[in-house]
What we know:
Shape: rod-shaped
Helix content: over 70%
Strand content: under 5%
Distance between the termini: 53 Å
Structural class: mainly alpha
Amino acid sequence: MGTQVDIIALREACQNRDKYRAFEREVIGGITREVDDRKGKAERERINREKKAKRKRQRAAASML
Length: 65
């Protein structure tokens, strides 16, 4: 993770409001993308576990024949 910043103090210190709002949107977008990436990774891992379990069941069923 990055450095923690007091966003309210930063907003008050910034002279150009438009520039600050653009920066704020970029930061929020970065956080959102990071959360989405983690959710996507967790979903892929879950699917891989399910596929692995399915293959294991199929091999067990095939060995019973």
